UniProtKB/TrEMBL annotation:
Ranges of biased composition (kind: Polar residues): 54-69
Region (Disordered): 1-20, 54-123
Organism, scientific name: Rhododendron simsii
Residue intervals of the MHD1 domain: 525-668
Coiled coil: none
MHD2 domain location: 799-909
Bias (Low complexity) ranges: 70-84
PROSITE patterns for the chain: MHD1, MHD2
UniProt name for this protein: MHD1 domain-containing protein
Chain ranges passing through the membrane: none
Amino acid sequence: MGISNDKTTIPVPPSDDLPNPFAAQLGLPLSDMELRETAYEVLVASCRSTGANPLTYMSQSQRLSPSTERSLSISSPRRSPLKSVTPKKSCSNALGLRKSAAAAMKKGRDSSGQDAGKAKRPATVPDLVRVQMGISEHADSRIRRGLLRIAVAQVGKRIETMVLPLELLQHFKHTDFPNQLEYESWQKRKLKILEAGLLLHPRLPLDKNDTAPQRLKKLISGALETPIKTGKQSEKMKGLWTTVMSLACRSFDGSVSETCHWADGVPLNLCVYQMFLEACFDADEKTAIVEEVDEVLDLVKKTWVVLGINQMLHNLCFSWVLFHRYVSTGQVETDLLFAANCLLVEVEKDAKASTDAACSSILSSTLNLILGWIEKSLLSYHDTFYSDNIDVMPIFVSLAVLTAKILEKDISLGKEVDVARDRVDMYIRSSVHSAFSQARQKVEMIKSSKKSSKNQRNPLPVLSILAQDIIEVALNEKEIFSPILKRWHPLAAGAAVAVLHACYGNELKRFVKIAGIGELSPNAVLVLHAADKLERVLVQIAVEDSVESEDGGKTGIQEMTPFESEGVMDSLVKTWIGTRLDRLRELVDRNLQEEDWDPEAYKERYAPSAGDVLRMMDETLEAFFSLPMTRHRALLPDLMGGLDQCLQQYIMEAKSGCGSRNNFIPVMPALTRCKTGSKLPVALKRKENSYAAQGRKPQLGTTAGENSLGLPQQCVRINTMQHIRVELEVLVKRIINRLNSKSSSPEDISQGIRKKFELSIAACVEGLQQLCEATAYKVVFHDLSHVLWDGLYVGEVSLSRIEPFLEELEQHLEIILATAHDRVLTRLITEVMKASFEGFLFVLLAGGPSRAFTKQDSDTLEEDFKFLMDLFWFNGDGLPSELIIKASTTVQGVLPLFRIPTESLIEQFRRITHDTYGLSAKSKLPLPPTSGKWDPTDPNTLLRVLCHRNDDMASNFLKKTYNLPKGVIQVQVPEIRLAYDSMLG
């Protein structure tokens, strides 16, 4: 973006946005005309007071007669001709102000006899001031007449020892005015001036205990409504006089001062004084000062004693007038801004010693207005300055820095440098950021127009175009703006390019994140090349700009976070990885929701959802290694870590809801003696068992198993876990081969690659174990509960043996053989065998009072258990014999207890209990807790064998030792029949 050649004026805010800092704080509706009339009265009175000769009053007719004009210099010597005044120092030269050419042109026309009908040029400085201030000759005549009356009454009284509005009120009557209305308006102006100077803005703060302010306020309020009689004999006038003088003649030490303070309070005095300074500008040529500006200022300075103006306030007020004149006239006369800057330099010097709170307040408000207006241009100086007005920019910056310094209070040398640099740094960063935003908007418009153009083929990416525009902005900054700003900021160009670098870097990040780049497309490559070129240009500018700096520009360079193509490419690849992983997660969720784990759905007998997930993982890896880059090995861990998490998510979800072995183990019944006695008829017993099988729910630790899938579906889940585990090994080998093909020097990285999938591998191992156990315990304790827990050895042992359980268990094993994968078959059947052995022991030792065994039943129990073992051996075609023997160790150790005589069993229980708890022979036997591990040396195991021993000795021992009750399970035959009949409906 180059500098515009447009010759329009600086696009700055209008002057309406620039309120007068003096009038804004006045707090009283005084118009400019009222202030000018008041100022002119003070000026005439001050000149009269300081003149060598007494003031002579001339009537309007006399002043207008030709003879009067010819004798003007004689009758009014104190109103010296313009040509007679020789200034000691030229204000226009010192401030660089341009004088008006209109006066000379008028003078030339008058001498040549042209334009005779136009008004003549004022002959004296006072007349010039009057004309400039817009005071009519009639008003001037009245003022001088009033001052003569005052002078007659108070000969030799100095202007600073009187309250001029009060004096004029006393010496004027309505007959001095053309009409009553004008008189009343004049009187109200005098009263408002008194209110402003004595009540609203007094030089000395008002005393809260003094009643004079309230009296004056009341008198003024009444006089504004009803005009007062101003003669010396008027009671209201006497009261007004007394009250006004008591307030005006106050001093800091409490004594009565000779000097009257009625117009020297800030900001009233500045509002009045501003009228004089405005008169320095030519009425016809508003950007130029009058030829006699030095004489005018010399005349105006005579009012300082009345208005309490000092050099600092003069400089401040004049600075504001010059600045406001520059703004209000269209910002075309740079000399005005330069002059304001020169005066503020003097204000800065005087501000160090100033302790006046009121002056400090008005100084602050004025400078803030100037600074605020100037900064609106500097904060976007790329839009403000161009080739035709670039010379103005140094004045703008100087004025902004100078006002900021004064406002900082501490204006020591070190602080000045910091203030200047901080301010300029802010302007640079703000404007450069704005220039970048405009360049981006321009590119967006180009993009939109290209979208609408059907003939446009393969347009350049937006960021590629933007990079070119930013290079142009940076070069313009270096060549045009930075040389100016370097006066206040030694690293101006470096600061600018740092902002451009950061802004483009943010766009580059947004391009990578939001634009949806899945692969390194040709457009992405173009953007990377453009970004790399831009970065080289920006860094070069920063380096050249910092050659003379103390740290060699390290600070500026460090601020520019690199975005070289390799880093951006890494970011693109990581975004690509994130997108692919998100898709994989969505696939995992969707497939698991739709998966029914049907063993018939897929010939390999594992879940199709797992195949889809693994296939997508392989495709993702294939696409990753096809990306046009060289850093595959560095970025591969990010991809593999994400794949590992997705696969782990699938595994965790696939095994969730299947429960665990603890979900299916029945609740351990309380210890009780078995119920001996009459047995139920065999036929009715079978009906009872049938009823229990159909109507009784198994006793489960939780209800999770009731909602779990069937055995075929469980086998598919197990197969799926095994398939994932195998495929992971294959996937690792493929990754290693792909990495080696990308590298000229292959390395042994197999261990590192395998570690990347360690979470998934661990989840598979854990999932296989959990699913095999859960499936086995579900089959035994849930699916076969009706023939194991509800049927085996209930009632008569010989009539409720293990054959029904074996028959149904064999059917379930056939389903497992037909569904489970060969690699997990042995493991799953082994878990079923372990669950069956545990279920068998559970019936013997925790089957409740419905199961009672005699010593003679031990052969039956051992025979049934052998049948159970043979089912898994299956004539040598089943599980290995050593595996069966190892799993049956616990049962084989407990079964002999059932053939031990009761007396010996009791003695053995006593001895082991004494040994276990360290009891003496006479100590009472404690009730051993259930350990959960059956063992012939475990007291609880021996106690449970005794609880199920069907003889009186065992029952008496349990009754005497532990007061165990007999189990009440015997149901009368009619009740069973009724229940059975109702079940049949």
